[in-house]
Amino acid sequence: MNFHDIIYKKEKGIATIAINRPEVMNAFRAETIHEMISAFEDAWIDREIGVVVVTGTGEKAFCTGGDQKSKDMGGYSGTSRSDIGLDVEDLHMIIRRIPKPVIAAVNGYAIGGGHVIHVVCDLTIASEKAIFGQVGPKFGSVDPGFGTAYLARVVGEKKAREIWYLCKQYTATEAEKMGLVNKVVPHEKLLEETYQWCEEILDKSPTALKVAKYSINADSSNIEGISQLGMSALALYYDTLESKEGYESFLQKRPANFRKFRKRKN
Ligand SMILES: CC(C)(COP(=O)(O)OP(=O)(O)OC[C@H]1O[C@@H](n2cnc3c(N)ncnc32)[C@H](O)[C@@H]1OP(=O)(O)O)[C@@H](O)C(=O)NCCC(=O)NCCSC(=O)c1cc(O)c2ccccc2c1O
Fold first, then answer.
1. Class of the 1-188+216-266 domain?
2. Angle, nearest 10°, between helix axes 88-97 and 223-237?
3. Where does substrate bind (predicted)?
4. Among the atoms of ligand 1, which is closest to the Cα of residue 141?
5. Whose CA is nearest to atom 26 of ligand 1?
6. Residue with CA closest to ligand 1 atom 31
7. Of the residues 21, 70, 250, which should be mutated to test ligand 1's pocket, given the most ligand atoms within 8 Å of the CB?
8. Which end of the chain, C or N, has fewer beta carbons within 10 A?
């Protein structure tokens, strides 16, 4: 398979998808999401694959969300089914629907939509250098559905609200404490530890794993509907000056002025 934005490899029952756009801290554009979905489809169909690993190339980032350099009023450029210009919802759904465990190996920044990708994965192993956080309200975006409602299931509502309302960054140790990651390991041991977890999973019954995954998913499957509704609202939000102020402030490396959008309408 020929990919440009990701590196996809399969070895000894393990499929690895590495987002490969280090020049933008592994931010994703429409093509990146489509390539990831194709790789997941291949890993799903291939009966020899028992587990999928998602990671990022380079030393700095796992993924920093939507590529702000491919964004304009109305959303991201690129061909997509979604009005937003990114088929992120479809990526979240295939991570949940593939009947095999998906492990995020977080090697650096997991920010914005990149943070949501690791949240949706079944398990997360983090380098001690990893940094976690949501940035939407700081940069004119929000990731409703799995990024909000499902995050609240993982870390609890109070913590999820803090993550979204304050847009702070959290260390790997802080993330582990709040149940956001399964294990923190020295940076150079990240893939070794992740593949060790994969080996343990490969020793287990694939059918039992599939039923375990689907039965855990079933309890939060209503979030798919929240996601659809929320993403429709997001498409409208992206068409506003308020959202534009956010992503322009990021690109212009200046603080956003959202206070002006709190003025009373006369
Ligand atoms: C990750 C950071 C905290 C790092 O900060 P730092 O100060 O160390 O480095 P720089 O900010 O200078 O970044 C270095 C270099 O990388 C470029 N870059 C980083 N992230 C992105 C990005 N997402 N898009 C494009 N480019 C990026 C940066 O511009 C610099 O390049 P230079 O050329 O100037 O050297 C910090 O970078 C950071 O906070 N990044 C994230 C910014 C962001 O806005 N992310 C997206 C949020 S919205 C989103 O992710 C999103 C998710 C979804 O699931 C969606 C679903 C459906 C629709 C839309 C969605 C969506 O928008």
1. alpha beta
2. 170
3. 64-68, 76, 109-113, 141, 238, 253
4. 48
5. 24
6. 24
7. 250
8. C
Q: Is 113 annotated as a binding residue?
A: yes
The contacts of residue 89 (CB under 8 Å, 6+ apart) are: 82, 145, 227, 228, 231
Ligand 1 neighbourhood includes 64 CB (under 6 angstroms): yes
pTM of the entire predicted model: 0.96
To the question of whether residue 111 is assigned a binding role by annotation, the answer is yes
Q: Is 150 annotated in some ligand binding site?
A: no
Q: Which amino acid is at 125?
A: I
